[in-house]
Write a structure and sequence with these properties.
The chain is of the alpha+beta class and 114 residues long. The protein has four helices and five strands.
Length: 114
């Protein structure tokens, strides 16, 4: 049985607005999400507070979504510091196939979703 599924690879990048950034963010800083891995480029750091605002959205952004789902269109996240003008843009940058069996020991669920 084919147990493959696809996840999008993501790039999360700091973008500037007309409001000054008061945190340590710098325009162009970024990290990648490949599968379950978050990959930070060499010499790059990211605020744990900013990550806390972004992390809950990443699994949904990795998945195929209905064309009307707001998670597909809403891709710019505000810094959680209300005084900071930084935004974090989530972009799909490719896709990768995974095997269910390589990710979990649980059997594939054949639930009764409608």
């Amino acid at each position: 049985m084919d147990d493959k599924f696809t996840l999008y690879n993501l790039k999360v990048e700091v973008v500037a607005t007309d409001k000054p950034m008061v945190c340590k963010h710098k325009e162009g800083d970024y990290f990648l999400v490949i599968g379950e891995d978050i990959i930070f480029p060499e010499n790059n750091s990211f605020s744990m507070y900013a990550l806390s605002a972004i992390l809950p959205l990443l699994p949904a952004k990795q998945r195929i979504l209905h064309e009307n789902d707001w998670m597909l269109s809403d891709s710019v996240i505000a810094c959680p510091d209300p005084n900071c003008g930084a935004r974090f843009k989530i972009t799909r940058i490719g896709a990768k196939d995974f095997s269910h069996a390589d990710c979990t020991i649980e059997p594939i669920h054949k639930g009764d979703y409608e």
